[in-house]
Write a structure and sequence with these properties.
The chain is mainly α. Helix content is 69%, strand content 0%.
Length: 318
């Protein structure tokens, strides 16, 4: 019996502990880090409303508004406006360092851990401002705590190349942790889509193809007037069922090489559409960041090399 299970054990070990994609992890770190940094900076100017006396959530009621399912077993959040500013400043500095990647394998992970602690503290302080991007951010940061994401496309790598020092690649234990972190983010992305897809199938609005129209026809949600689409019901129907089908089947189509490219392109198209139509840029970019971990590292290298060559040639011409 154990002999027959051996191939399964080898496959599981290879999937979770032997996957190496430093190039994909590097672009994920930068793309997601910049997105999160913008989100934090946008909230700083409204700190008094979100975390101070101008808001309607006093510190002693911060945890009471959190649903039981999300209520943390350890609570730690700023109980004053100055404290909230402090957490945001620390988070901004840590995010800049994470994006630039000047540290080694442990420094990168510790920086991500600091970002996660600050993020969760601010989420606990005022759960009423939390939306999809904040919840997904928690998952992605948790994954980054395992990944040595600065092995590629970082200040650390640039300094090694500039000094012509042979880059010291990760030891086995560190590469195993990186593999686990990448797989956690990938699996969580699939869980999100699978859950939302099957939840949509429970609603009659998605079956009768009116769900998307109820969003497009809501002027409070749209950034432009899309009422003209009432005269093109085919577009509404395709958008409705296209969204459901993608969310249900994407968790499967992401994995095989034959379908991965098309699933990733469809997902990016979906979220670009959400960003342009509804103005949910931070949410869309946060979701799109995880797609980068599914991209073949060799493709990432080719794209980055091509872009670098074009920038270098443009600089020489100017």
């Amino acid at each position: 019996m154990i002999r027959h299970l051996r191939p399964i054990q080898i496959a599981v070990d290879r999937f979770f502990f032997s996957f190496s994609a430093p190039a994909s992890a590097g672009v994920f770190r930068i793309f997601f880090g910049v997105t999160l940094l913008i989100n934090v900076l946008l909230r700083v100017e409204h700190s008094d409303f979100y975390f101070g006396s101008a808001g309607n959530i006093p510190p002693d009621e911060a945890l009471s508004i959190i649903p039981d399912f999300y209520r943390p077993w350890v609570s730690w959040f700023p109980d004053s406006l100055n404290g909230a500013y402090g957490f945001q400043i620390v988070m901004i500095v840590a995010l800049v360092l994470l994006i630039l990647g000047p540290f080694g394998r442990m420094g990168t992970r510790i920086t991500a851990l600091i970002v996660m602690i600050c993020h969760l503290a601010l989420v606990q302080r005022n759960f009423s401002i939390v939306y999809g991007a904040d919840r997904v951010t928690s998952f992605w940061i948790f994954g980054l705590c395992f990944i040595d994401s600065a092995e590629r496309f970082s200040v650390r790598r640039w300094l090694y190349q500039r000094r012509k020092i042979n880059f010291v690649f990760e030891p086995e234990w560190s590469r195993i942790l990186s593999s686990v972190g990448i797989r956690l983010v990938q699996i969580q992305l699939c869980v999100i889509y699978m859950y939302t897809g099957f939840e949509k199938l429970k609603g009659g609005d998605w079956w009768d193809q009116t769900a998307v129209w109820k969003v497009l026809g809501n002027e409070q949600l749209m950034i432009a007037d899309f009422s003209f689409l009432r005269n093109v019901p085919l577009v509404i129907g395709l958008a409705t069922w296209g969204t459901v089908l993608f969310e249900v089947y994407a968790p499967i189509l992401f994995w095989p090489r034959a379908t991965r490219k098309w699933a990733l392109l469809a997902g990016w198209g979906l979220h670009v559409g959400i960003a342009l139509v509804m103005g949910l840029y931070i949410f869309s970019f946060t979701m799109m960041a995880a797609y980068l971990l599914f991209v073949d590292p060799r493709v990432v290298d080719r794209v980055v090399t091509l872009a670098s060559d074009k920038v270098r040639r443009f600089g020489q011409r100017s």
